[in-house]
Known about the structure:
The chain is of the alpha+beta class. The N and C termini lie far apart (74 Å). The model is unreliable at 1-6 (pLDDT under 50). Bound molecules: pterin cytosine dinucleotide.
Amino acid sequence: MTDPAQQEQIIGKRRIRREDPKLLSGENRFADDLVVPGALHLVVVRSPHAHARIQRIDVNAAKSMPGVVGVFTGKDLESEWAGPMPCAWPVTAEMKNPAHYPLAVEYVHYAGEGVVAVVARSQVEAVDAAGAVIVDYEELPPVLELEEAVNDTTLAHEELESNTSFVWALEPNPDAVDAAFRDAAVTVSERFVQQRLIPAAMEPRAMVVVPSPMGGDYTVYSSTQIPHVLRVMLALTAGISETKLRVIAPSVGGGFGSKLDVYAEELLCLALARRMRQPVRFTEERGEGTMATIHGRGQVQHIELAANADGKVTAVRVKLLADMGAYLQLVTPGVPLLGAFLYHGVYDVGAYSFTCTGLFTNKTPTDAYRGAGRPEATYAIERAMDSLARRLELDPAEIRRRNFIAAEKFPYQSVAGLVFDSGSYHANLEKALDNAGYLDLRREQEQRRAAGNPRRLGIGVSCYVEMCGLAPSRVLASLNYGAGGWEAATVRILPTSKVQVVTGTAPHGQGHETSWSMIVADKLGISPDDVEVLHSDTAIAPYGMDTYGSRSLSVGGTAVYLATERVIEKAMKIAAHQMEVAEEDLEYVGASFRVKGSPEQQLPLAAIAFEAFTAHNLPDGLEPNLEASISWDPPNFTFPNGTHIAVVEVDEETGHVQLVRYIAVDDCGNQINPLIVEGQVHGGITQGVAQALYEEALYDSSGQLLNASLADYLVPSACEMPSFELDSTVTPSPTNPLGVKGVGEAGTIGSAPAVINAVVDALSDLGVTDCPMPATPERVYQLIKQASSK
Ligand code: MCN
C-alpha cells in the first residue's frame, strides 16, 4: 500500500492503460486463439441470393467428404430451439417481427443468411465440404431501397402484408408544431441519407463452445460485448438452464456495437456441441463477416425546421425511414429511438415532432453501431442548421449561438421529454472557434476564393448532445426495452490487502481495468497497481449489463465507486471497534483510519483487512471479510456534448477531400483518465470521418454486397487523419457521484456533420447545398461539375 504521506489524487491523471502491454506483445488470448483439444469446426453455407425460396438442399456429397462429422439443414436443427432468435426491443405492441432462426428453413431473406451448417474435424475440411453442399433456389425479387420498401410493391418477407415493422411517433405537442410552421418566417426542409456502414471490428467474430465431459454444462467463449445478456438469451433460445451456461468473453478486439448481439453461430455452436457432445468452434472470415455481422445506420431522414426572421428555431419536425434489414436482431428496432429524443440537438426549440417507420429490406440486418441513433440525429439537425444559416445569410457559428440551450437552464427539460443534466454549449463553441482560429480561417477561405485557388477551403461546425449511460431501468421500461440499465460491482479487500474488483461491464477496448482501478485506488488511497479488475466471465461476475451505449463508466464505474464506499464503511466499523472509539470520531485518510484531531492514533486499512479475514475480534454481529457488492440503477442518463470543427481542402479538379485540421471540444463531465478519454475521442472521430468520407456498404440491384472485403470497403487508418486538436469543457453530471458522462461514442456523434458541413461550405459559393455521404472524389467532382454548369 502507498505511504499515506505520499497519497496523491489518481482520478483525473493521464495514466497509461494497463491493458496495453499484453495487447502490444500479442500475449492476449482472443477466442480464436484458445486451444481446445478435439474442437470441431463449424462452417456455414450461406445464401448467395438476397431473397429466394429454398427448393432443394443436397448434403450427401458434403457428408462423405473427409473429416466431416455432420451436415445440418435448418430443418435438421428445428428441435434444438426453444424459440426464434431474440429481439429484446419490441418498440411497439404491434411491431412485426418475422421468425428468425439460426438457419433458414424455407426462404432466405438476405445474401449471407445461413442455410446449412457443416461440422468437420478441421477448418479446411469444413470449408471443402461446405463447397460440396448443393442448394437450389427459386429467386424472388428483393426489396433494397427504403423509399421503395415503404410502398410495399415488393415484399421483403412473403409472410408479411407489408414491409413495415413498426411506426413509432413522439409528438408531444402536434398543434404547436403546426402553428410554428404556419407562422414561420423561414422554413428549411432537407432529405439526408444515412448510408449503411459495416462495423469491421479488428477481431472478426469468433466463438467456441465446450461441453462438460458428461454433457449438460457448457462454457461459451465468444468475442462478445455482452456475456451476461448473451447467457440469458442463449438459455432462453436453446432451452438450456442458465445455471448450466458459463459465458466468457476473452480478449475482445473491438466491437463498436456489432458484438452487442446474439448471433446465429453462437446458437449453432451451442446446439451442435450439445448434440455431438464435443466442443464446436466458429470464426468468421472477414468477407463473410461483412454480410453476416450486423450493419449500422441505414436511414432516410426528412427534417424540417421552422424559424423566425432572426434565425431562432421554433419547431423541428422529423420523419425517418429506418432500415431494419431482413430481420430484427437484438436491439434493431430501438436504434432509431435512441436518436428520437435528440433531433433538436443542443437547441432550445419550442415544438417537436418525430416519427420513425422501421422497414424490412432484403439486406443484412442492422443494429447498434457506435452512436446508434445519435450520430444520425446529430447529422440531421447540424446539417439543417447550416441550411438555415445559408438561407438567412448568417455565419454557421452565429445561427448556433442564437439557438443554444443556455447554461443557466440546466437541468434542462427538453421538449422531447428528457432532462439534460448539465452543459455549457456556448462555452464549447467559443472555445472551439478560438482553438480553430475561426476568423482567420474564414479570411483564408475568402482569399483562396478571390484568387481562384482550386484547393478550396471549407470549415464545418457541428455541435452535439447525446444521451448515454443507458441507464434508468424504469425509463428503459417505458421505451419497451427488454432489459434493465443498472450495473453490478463487487469490491473485496483480500487478507494481504490487495483489492479485487468484479465488474458487470465487459470492456473490449475501452480500458476499464485501468479506469476502474483508478477509481478504487483514489477512493482507498492506495496504488492502482494493487487493484485487480475481473470481468467478462459469468462465473466470476454473475450479474452485469455489459458494455455499450457509453454506459460503462457512468453506471458501472459508479457501481464500483459505491461498492468501494461500502467497503470503507464496513472497515470503519472494524477500525472503531479495534481502536475503541466511536465511528463518528474516525476519518479515513491515506489508506488509514485515524482519530479526528489526533492523527497519530491510526490503523492502516491493511491491518483491518487482515482482521476482517481472521475474524478474531470483530464487532458483534459483523460478518467476516471485507467485501461489498452493489447493483446501481442511475436516476438519469448522462448528456455529453461538444463542438467539433472540421477544416477541409476540396480539390476542384479531382473532387478529392482532404481533412486538414480537426478541432474538438468535448464535455464528458469529470474525466477519470484524460488519456483514455482522448483515445476514445480519437477513435470516435475517425469513425465519424469514415462515414463522412469513405465508408458505405454498396449493393447491386440484385442485393449483392459489392464491397464485402476490406480491399473494397474503405476503413481509414491514422494515415488519413490529421492530428486531432482536442480540448474540453467540464460540467460535472449531477446524475452520479463521480460527476462523469460517457465518452465512448462522442467523437463519432460530433464528427460526420462537421466534415460534410465543411465540404458543403467549401463549395457553397458555387451554389452547392448538399453532399451525400460518403463524400467520395467522384461524388464531389460531380457536384462541382453540376454547380459550375448552372
Ligand atoms: N472515461 C473517462 N472519463 C469520462 C468518460 C469516460 O475516463 N468522463 C473512460 C472510461 O473510464 C472508460 C472509457 O473512457 O475507460 C469509455 O467509457 P464510456 O464512455 O463509459 O464507454 P464504455 O466503456 O461503455 O464503452 C462503450 C463505447 C461504445 S458504445 C462503443 S460503440 C465503442 C467505444 O466505447 N466501441 C469501442 N469505444 C471503443 N473503443 C474500442 N477500442 N473498441 C470499441 O469497439
